[in-house]
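B., you asked whether I could sanity-check this one before it goes into the benchmark set. Here's the sequence:
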Amino acid sequence: MSKRFLIVSIMTLGLVALSSCHGNSGGTYKMRFVNASDSATVMEFSLQNPSVMARVHMAVFSARIKGTFVRKDADAKAIAEGTVQQDEKGYTLVSRDGTKQRFETQDSGSLKDESGTLWTLDNPKTTLVKERVGLLQWASQK
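And here's what the prediction gave me:
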């Protein structure tokens, strides 16, 4: 009986630990940057907001915050999309066509790309990417 209890306890504890790291996160957060030399060019990041246990997991295993990006150019027809990964010094973007681009974080909170262009932080109330409505949000709208 005690051996069975010990095994069940260990399995339960392991399941809780794994679901805390890989389970529900704190959702996502969005950051919008505007090109300082061309205000019509906008880039938006949607990044994971990891839970406390996920942050511990990331610290132990050197994992990075990941997400997606959308870049809307001045002509509004050219849209670049892809994945973004945050690290200690900034962000690495990989577009769907495989193009890699690096952005360094500045002390002012803005970003500087590889060509030296500054992107200033501008967090709006609306976003380029429509958010999915969850069941609770949908029910509260009715």
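One thing to flag: The helical segments are 2-22, 52-61, 135-141. Otherwise nothing jumped out at me.
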